[in-house]
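$ ./design --mode recover --in tokens.txt
reading tokens...
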């Protein structure tokens, strides 16, 4: 056995160490964390620079600690951090110590008063009468601007009507949207001294009627003349301006404008000239059609909403008026009282009836036959 063991080869392992080994990637993780932190820092600086001061204050107030107590003197309970020995807390030295608190009366249907924040939020959410009126006026003004643009586009779309563009003036006035058909040199709306309009005037009124029909407001029509005196003795500028205004009214009704929307037709003669410096200027001869502000379906709807809002505010309990209205609408009609049936007449002598007592100072008139006692 010893000889066999001696014959086995002896193996010697030699490890050669060359150069520096791998140090690992821990520094890469640290560098990545550093770069991420720097990027977040620069993003924070950029956001702080781009956000307004009001937003920053709102964020600060959102994360600020909120005290649950209304006072800073201890607790916010009944005593509010005071001791019973302080003046104003103990009411009497001999009587039982108590605290008096003035509480507002609860409101019906609300379960008590709202907190200050809830009351402010509710007041902001609920529009006031001024807000409703301002919103309605804003919408009406936008509709007037759209009608003005629509009228100009219609005149531009028809080649035959382009020459009449300068004869039509559209502007916004405190009274409403005013559309004026004026005379120009060489192009009048009516013959001189007549209320019968030319054909191009009728075509111009047809375009105006389309705009009026697209709007809900009522209209006012007025006729104007220049200061040139009329030659007729019994017919003057007052009569002429009134007749021309009525002729325009008839023409608008012919094109579909309802008669109930026409609220005023007047003749103003030369009292309201368009060019005051030259009372005899041809442009003073004109027709004025005004879409009156605050009229029509939009105004009626706003008034109905305002009335309903006031009814809701004045009712004692929420929904009480609505319940009453439903009861009145659904209540059955009371039947008319039926007269008592009369007994059928009997044949033979009438039965004896007792005599009526005579009361002093009262005269009783009896109709019919009463048998004597």
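writing sequence...
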């Amino acid at each position: 056995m010893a000889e066999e063991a001696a014959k086995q080869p002896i193996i010697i392992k030699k490890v050669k160490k060359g150069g520096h080994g791998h140090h690992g990637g821990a520094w890469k993780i640290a560098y990545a964390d550093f770069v991420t932190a720097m990027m977040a820092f620069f993003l924070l600086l950029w956001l702080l620079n781009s956000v307004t001061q009001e937003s920053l204050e709102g964020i600060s107030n959102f994360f600020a600690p909120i005290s649950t107590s209304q006072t800073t003197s201890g607790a916010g309970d009944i005593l509010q951090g005071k001791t019973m020995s302080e003046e104003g807390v103990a009411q009497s030295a001999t009587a039982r110590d108590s605290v008096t608190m003035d509480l507002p009366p609860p409101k019906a249907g609300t379960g008590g008063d709202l907190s200050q924040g809830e009351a402010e939020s509710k007041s902001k959410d609920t529009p006031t009468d001024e807000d409703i009126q301002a919103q309605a006026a804003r919408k009406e003004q936008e509709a007037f601007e759209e009608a003005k643009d629509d009228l100009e586009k219609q005149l531009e779309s028809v080649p035959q009507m382009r020459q009449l563009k300068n004869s039509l003036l559209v502007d916004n006035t405190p009274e409403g949207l005013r559309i004026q058909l004026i005379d120009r040199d060489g192009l009048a709306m009516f013959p001189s001294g007549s209320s019968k309009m030319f054909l191009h005037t009728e075509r111009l009124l047809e375009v105006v009627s389309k705009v009026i029909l697209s709007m809900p407001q009522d209209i006012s029509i007025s006729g104007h003349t220049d200061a040139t005196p009329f030659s007729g003795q019994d017919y003057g500028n007052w009569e002429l301006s009134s007749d021309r205004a009525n002729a325009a009214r008839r023409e608008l009704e012919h094109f579909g404008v309802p008669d109930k929307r026409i609220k005023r037709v007047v003749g103003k003669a030369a009292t309201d000239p368009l060019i005051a410096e030259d009372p005899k200027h041809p442009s003073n001869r004109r027709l004025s059609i005004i879409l009156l502000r605050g009229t029509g379906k939009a105004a009626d709807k706003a008034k109905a909403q305002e009335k309903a809002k006031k009814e809701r505010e004045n009712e004692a309990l929420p929904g009480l008026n609505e319940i009453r209205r439903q009861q009145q609408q659904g209540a059955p009609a009371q039947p008319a009282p039926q007269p008592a049936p009369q007994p059928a007449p009997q044949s033979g002598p009438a039965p004896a009836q007792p005599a009526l007592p005579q009361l002093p100072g009262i005269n009783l008139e009896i109709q019919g036959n009463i048998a004597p006692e």
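exit 0
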